[in-house]
Recover the amino acids of this structure.
């Protein structure tokens, strides 16, 4: 039972303290008490208590509750304390150099990575936004399903433009026919100056649609058939400082044109960055008979051109797409079986949202934007975790400081402000350092990522994000010491009875696990990406790339003297053989149907890669024959000869292919040989069934096999001399086939390089953090280690004791990351039809690697701690 | 300064301070008034009157003198200022003057 309260009612006293200003409370409570005591004697307890309450209530009048300036201490200016905080912060940083280095360096590295990735993503998202009509421009696309595979194509038949213009004219502001995507090499010549530049033939409305920034001339420059618009860089190269307007020049050594304008070069992050000149579409039609034929005969079956449109101000993409959907079906109904569909792809989707897999699902660059975005967030997270971990670990050592500050009179809000200002200071350092890092790395990064990115010094969003993020990190990292430490009771801390709870280290351990999960996942990912690239590189290519070069046949002269050119080249001694073909060995650019052969299922909708070659092609590239023989001049009948690759034989289901007749449209061919598959497309894909037929007329490139016994530069100089003689109108430009082949890995190698860079950084940051934590733990347990050593523990015992905890964490992290990595990488590999396996040893290597790195990091500290003489560590007690 | 007008209760409190000169604090004044006037007063009323008097400059105060019955708490000791004393005298004179002005028959 509770003893009866003989004092004044507690709630009344409580009420008084709640409302009364402290300086008055003392006297009032004293008065109340005194009166209460007297009244007990005078009128009894009950009455005394009652009057006590009445008095308290009467005291709670506004005039008495009103608070006056209660602070009896001097009020220092706000900046005085801030100055003190900063001083202490600097002293702390200088005192613990290693921690400071790890803290600031690690965070700066993480921030730099995040900044780089942020800049990259910004660049990707701002792609093509240079164009004023960005949200009204679209490409006309073709879609269909063939043999169960969905395909999307941006190439259109020649009559598509006129059709859109005449039938659907009200929906479009501009309909532009284009000869290609701006990657076509052309020779531009003015007097003696000749350059190979990329450019396109476009309809006259193009300058308006692209809103060209004309430096001289007008956007009407394409109206006249024999005119050309040059980009600023090309105009500089050709004409130097003289005014190019009105000058006469030549395209491909055959077309005379007059310069009618110069436009500002397109920025690097636009679709048309390679469009260095624009010539009129009409000129193209007039000079290329096959184009004229396609246009005049309204050929709906030849898909060779792009159609760009700007939709009318009142139209929208979906509605127009719906209108034009069935154009192709209307004009050639016989292809209904592929379910052809015409639609518009808006400019906003060109860069990130074009690319589809075989079932028509989107597979564009946006995936990489997401991937790198996630990686960036994770690396940043790692750095933040480090920062928080170290801050919290360090903060326990500062409990005494908190105690002293409190004893001297700090209130809690001041301590909170102190710790926050400290962590914000560190973050500010890291931010500045991160910007320096980015400035240093940016050139390399641009190189790897194929970008021209700069820091957005003038962009407020950049600064807003950077500073906003820094603030956030500082607040989150500083929140533990600020909110937790400031709650310590000064008495306990200073007396030494203060102990952090048993579970204080749990959040830290969780953070370490998260860190290592991310790191190990990235390591596994990197290994797999490189394995996949190596796997594809090791694949037999079916021909010999070494010393093979290709020269584009871009002028009429080269087509006329095949034998003379070949003889002259071989005579130089630098060339083993020369041949022409319709495509270089690294590019299967033509696929056709219309083939028939003995035993073909009439319902089989076949498609073959088609390459036209000369007699010498096989020897030039080094074909490897499985059956039959190469095309030869010795057999006159070889003029209708054909060589198949192994896949084609399997595809056609031929038992004994050599000597079989194959019909393509109206021509008869006879198979003379079967070669091993030649990888002409992506090395990650299966080889397409391909036929190689003899045809000197269908030639686009000259293939030259250099003499391996001679030095390359010497041979090239001689070859150049020959080409000067045979092809005076064109500069001698050549490409090495092995370099072209290597380009096929560019995308994968780019991912690989970036991923490995991030993985190394992630591991580095994690190890920095681990190193800091280990040294903290070792320091905290100095006495324990001393006692253990006195009692006979060996160095190994102590080492095991200190390392065990971290190893357990890393093992847990490894387990989690294995699952994550397996899930995602399996999905990634499945995208490649020709892919490596996800073998167990990769995981083992990654796990072991992480473990070794962990042990190395932790061991430095734990061995150091274990070697300390216990006399020293125990001396102070 | 607020108006120098003294309310009735204020006057009583001021007189009590003068009576308890040297030991005039909240509880003592409450006791004094209760004894002299035989009526109960609230501590709050006294405190508020004291603070008003202080604002008017009629009393001054200082902290001091802790005793055991107050649980070791200090008390605020009030003393009448010269100005306060003059105010009391003025009131008294005023009353006397008015008393003198009363014609004798009216009292009988």
């Amino acid at each position: 039972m509770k003893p009866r309260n003989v004092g004044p009612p507690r709630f009344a006293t409580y009420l008084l303290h709640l409302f009364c200003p402290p300086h008055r409370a003392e006297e009032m409570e004293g008065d109340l008490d005194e009166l209460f005591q007297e009244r007990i004697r005078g009128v009894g307890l009950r009455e005394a208590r009652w009057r006590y309450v009445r008095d308290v209530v009467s005291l709670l009048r506004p005039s008495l509750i009103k608070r006056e300036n209660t602070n009896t201490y001097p009020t220092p200016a706000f900046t005085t304390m801030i100055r003190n905080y900063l001083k202490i912060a600097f002293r702390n940083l200088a005192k613990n150099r290693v921690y400071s280095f790890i803290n600031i360096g690690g965070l700066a590295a993480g921030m730099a990575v995040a900044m780089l990735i942020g800049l990259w993503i910004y660049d990707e998202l701002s792609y093509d936004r240079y164009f004023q009509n960005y949200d009204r421009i679209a490409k006309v696309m073709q879609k269909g399903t063939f043999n169960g595979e969905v395909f999307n194509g941006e190439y259109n038949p020649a009559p598509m433009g006129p059709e859109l213009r005449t039938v659907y004219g009200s929906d479009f502001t501009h309909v532009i026919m284009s000869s290609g995507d701006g990657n076509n090499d052309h020779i531009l010549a003015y007097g003696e100056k000749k350059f190979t530049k990329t450019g396109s033939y476009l309809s006259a409305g193009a300058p308006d649609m692209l809103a060209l920034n004309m430096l001289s001339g007008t956007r009407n420059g394409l109206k006249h058939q024999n005119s050309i618009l040059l980009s600023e860089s090309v105009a500089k190269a050709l004409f130097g400082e003289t005014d190019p307007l009105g000058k006469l020049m030549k395209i491909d050594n055959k077309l005379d044109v007059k310069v009618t304008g110069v436009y500002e070069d397109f920025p690097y992050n636009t679709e048309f960055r390679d469009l260095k000149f624009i010539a009129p579409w009409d000129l193209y039609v007039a000079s290329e008979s096959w184009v004229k034929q396609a246009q005049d005969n309204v050929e709906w079956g030849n898909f060779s051109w792009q159609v760009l449109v700007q939709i009318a101000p009142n139209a929208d993409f979906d509605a127009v797409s719906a209108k034009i959907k069935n154009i192709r079906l209307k004009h050639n109904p016989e292809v209904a079986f592929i379910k052809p569909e015409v639609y518009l792809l808006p400019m906003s989707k060109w860069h990130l949202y074009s690319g589809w897999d075989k079932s028509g699902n989107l597979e564009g660059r946006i995936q990489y934007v997401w991937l790198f975005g996630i990686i960036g967030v994770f690396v940043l997270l790692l750095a933040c975790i480090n920062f928080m971990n170290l801050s919290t670990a360090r903060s326990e050592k500062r409990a005494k400081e908190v105690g002293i500050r409190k004893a001297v009179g700090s209130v809690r809000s001041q301590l909170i402000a102190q710790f926050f200002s400290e962590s914000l200071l560190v973050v500010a350092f890291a931010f500045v350092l991160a910007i320096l890092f980015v400035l240093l790395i940016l050139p390399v990064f641009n190189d790897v990522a194929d970008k021209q990115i700069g820091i957005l010094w003038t962009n407020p969003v950049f600064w807003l994000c950077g500073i906003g993020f820094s603030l956030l990190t500082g607040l989150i990292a500083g929140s533990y010491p600020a909110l937790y430490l400031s709650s310590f009771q000064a008495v306990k801390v200073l007396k030494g009875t203060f102990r952090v709870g048993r579970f204080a280290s749990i959040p830290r351990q969780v953070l370490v696990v998260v860190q290592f999960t991310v790191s190990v996942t990235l390591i596994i990912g990197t290994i797999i990406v490189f394995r996949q690239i190596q796997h594809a590189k090791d694949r037999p290519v079916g021909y010999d790339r070494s010393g093979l070069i290709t020269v584009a046949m871009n002028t009429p002269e080269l087509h006329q003297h095949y034998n003379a050119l070949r003889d002259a080249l071989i005579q130089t001694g630098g060339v083993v053989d020369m041949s022409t073909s319709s495509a270089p060995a690294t590019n299967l650019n033509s696929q056709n149907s219309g083939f028939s052969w003995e035993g073909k299922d009439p319902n089989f909708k076949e498609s073959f890669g088609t390459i036209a070659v000369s007699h010498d092609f096989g020897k030039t590239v080094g074909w490897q024959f499985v059956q039959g023989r190469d095309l030869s001049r010795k057999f006159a009948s070889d003029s209708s000869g054909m060589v198949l690759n192994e896949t084609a034989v399997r595809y056609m289901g031929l038992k004994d292919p050599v000597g079989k007749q194959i019909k393509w449209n109206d021509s008869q061919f006879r198979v003379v040989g079967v070669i091993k598959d030649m990888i002409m497309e992506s090395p990650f894909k299966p080889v397409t069934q391909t036929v190689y037929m003899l045809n000197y007329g269908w030639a686009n490139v000259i293939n030259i096999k250099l003499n391996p016994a001679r030095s390359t530069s010497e041979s090239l100089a001689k070859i150049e001399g020959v080409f000067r003689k045979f092809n005076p109108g064109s500069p001698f430009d050549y490409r090495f086939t092995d370099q072209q082949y290597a380009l096929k890995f560019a995308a994968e190698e780019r991912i690989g390089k970036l991923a490995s860079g991030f993985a190394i950084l992630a591991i580095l940051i994690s190890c920095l953090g681990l190193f800091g934590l280990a040294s903290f733990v070792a320091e905290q347990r100095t006495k324990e280690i001393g006692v253990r050593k006195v009692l006979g523990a060996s160095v190994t015992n102590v080492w095991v004791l200190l390392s065990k905890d971290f190893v357990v964490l890393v093992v847990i992290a490894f387990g989690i990351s294995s699952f994550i990595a397996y899930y995602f990488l399996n999905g990634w590999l499945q995208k490649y039809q020709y892919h490596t396996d996800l073998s167990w040893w990769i995981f083992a290597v990654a796990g072991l690697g992480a473990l070794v790195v962990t042990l190395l990091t932790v061991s430095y500290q734990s061995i150091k701690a274990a070697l300390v003489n216990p006399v020293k560590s125990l001396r102070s007690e | 300064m607020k108006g120098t007008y003294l309310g009735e209760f204020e006057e009583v409190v001021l007189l009590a301070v003068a009576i308890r000169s040297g030991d005039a604090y909240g509880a003592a004044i409450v006791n004094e008034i209760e004894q002299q006037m035989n009526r109960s007063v609230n501590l709050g009323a006294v405190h508020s009157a004291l603070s008003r008097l202080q604002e008017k400059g009629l009393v001054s105060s200082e902290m001091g003198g802790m005793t055991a019955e107050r649980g070791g708490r200090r008390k605020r000791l009030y003393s009448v200022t010269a100005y306060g004393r003059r105010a009391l005298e003025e009131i008294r004179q005023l009353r006397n003057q008015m008393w003198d002005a009363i014609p004798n028959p009216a009292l009988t």
Summary: Chain B touches chain A at residues 25-27, 30-31, 40, 42-45, 47-48, 51-52, 63, 66-67, 69-71, 73-76 (CB under 8 Å). The mean pLDDT of chain B is 84. The helical segments of chain B are 8-19, 26-37, 43-56, 82-101.
